[in-house]
């Protein structure tokens, strides 16, 4: 995960771009991955799951579409492995526990694909060694301070600060509680804010309080609508006047 | 704990769940971080409530005065004659709102009020848990939203109307497979949006810790009463206890008080059409769904499989973690009966005993019939988990098709 941390430190506010494996189609996904890696500082590749309980409507729709198009966890890892030399940003995999448990030799497969680690929303801190891979930990606004400190200490690559109670893609307001939440997470591991980030204005407002953002639903929306994800990402970089 | 004790003996001695909410290799709490604080709070509050004489007294009184407990124990004389074994029916169909679901709904509604919740949410499959939750929330004075798969809304229409009449808001879920599993996904999404003010009133012995334990504790009343009734009025313990298993709440409620007794325990799952089914223990592999590690129907890639059963309440690709442990330790056995076998047992009970059982409960009857064939003359306790009024439309369709 050292490459992930370095990439974030090199370019604040960093943007971690979430793309769902197999979208827009399993064939065209390789191209999306390469192009997104040129615009983002970190790429999160989602592995679709039939029951994405932490996801809002956009990512639910995307999971259904990807599975319907025939995406499989092994196939997605194979694609990452095939294009790994052309990727310009480090890659982490994001998925739910069950599809990851079904992959034989997950650490070996991730290493072969050049993937740095995983983000697994339904894998709690207490079971962090279950998969045998480095994990980015998520910290929620309602996480008590002592638990937040333990999550930060256990987190590899970056700390994923969930900015809203709710599912992915929901609205995010930058409140005093939110900035307090972000500040308590600061330490040697960079902090990225995620859940509901979709405008350059939001990125600029969050930038002083963290090391960057995760952009997920907004990018996936672009993919579902047949748009250009690279353009969506460019549009999120704060211009100097906005910052 | 003595290492020479078998898993089943440790289970009977109360070793599960452990302090992490595990049932041996199953159970636990696999949830997004947002849900960790409310689940901690729920565990603390539920542990305190169940140990509190005041809460216990309230619950016992409500179960007596509102639910109508204890429910009857019916020796099924003509059915016994037909099947060549002694059949006893634990009549949860006679409980208020028509199924065992009210036991856990009322217990949790009282807990929600004690915890100061502003609203209650629930999922429902057959609609029985939704109706029970709506009634319990009306009783304790809390607003209630019920998530229900759109497919179940269509096949359980009378229960949708009942929930609405009882003051609940029913939200059909079109995502996923539009049955119970999607309804749980959607209820969890609602809960993450308001983890502090909302009480999630889960209806079966599934989900993250503490739910499988909490629901079991509230459903144990079925087995506790049945055991006492058989010992007092009907000549002693049964040889077998049989219950249907969807998520597994009525079954664990019936089984748990018998764990230390020489009583064979049989869970009956939905065998559907044979090819399409919801027989999780028979065909499932370990995995994680809805916050718990258990047996799951899934494909080779860890995607959850679509299930089928004529009974909406058994149409679920997982099973409570305590049942996964009981299967693993061998303390209970799990079999599947087909839609057709369940419908035949349903018809037999109607004709011979004048009882119209729920289609879910009819699976237990069909399973009991097989136990009777294998063990002629034995004493068989059947958990009749609910009544079949909600299934009239399905039953009429079947009758017309036949
Ligand atoms: C009458 C009846 N029995 C059984 C079930 C299955 O649930 P469980 O396995 O939790 O008892 C249901 C669920 O809706 C039901 O309505």
Helices and strands in order:
The complex is a heterodimer of chains A (243) and B (402).
Chain A: H1 2-10, E1 14-20, H2 29-39, E2 42-46, H3 57-68, H4 73-83, E3 91-94, H5 97-101, H6 106-113, E4 115-119, E5 135-136, E6 138-139, H7 145-154, E7 159-162, H8 176-184, E8 191-194, H9 200-206, E9 212-215, H10 217-224, H11 229-234
Parallel strand pairs in A: 1-2, 1-9, 2-3, 3-4, 4-5, 6-7, 7-8, 8-9
Helix pairs in contact in A: 2-4, 4-6
Chain B: H1 7-12, E1 22-23, E2 26-27, H2 36-50, H3 53-67, E3 73-75, H4 77-83, E4 86-91, H5 101-114, E5 119-124, H6 128-140, E6 144-149, H7 150-155, H8 157-165, E7 169-173, H9 180-193, E8 198-200, H10 211-233, E9 240-244, H11 249-255, E10 264-270, H12 280-283, E11 285-289, E12 292-296, H13 321-329, E13 332-337, H14 339-353, H15 359-374, E14 379-384, H16 392-401
Parallel strand pairs in B: 4-14, 5-6, 5-8, 6-7, 9-10, 9-14, 10-13
Antiparallel strand pairs in B: 1-2, 3-4, 11-12
Helix pairs in contact in B: 3-5, 5-6, 5-10, 6-8, 10-11, 14-15
The complex binds pyridoxal-5'-phosphate (PLP).
Pyridoxal-5'-phosphate binds next to helix 6, helix 11 and helix 15 of chain B.
Short description:
The complex is a heterodimer of chains A (243) and B (402). Chain A is α/β, with parallel strands linked by helices and 243 residues long. Chain A has eleven helices and nine strands.
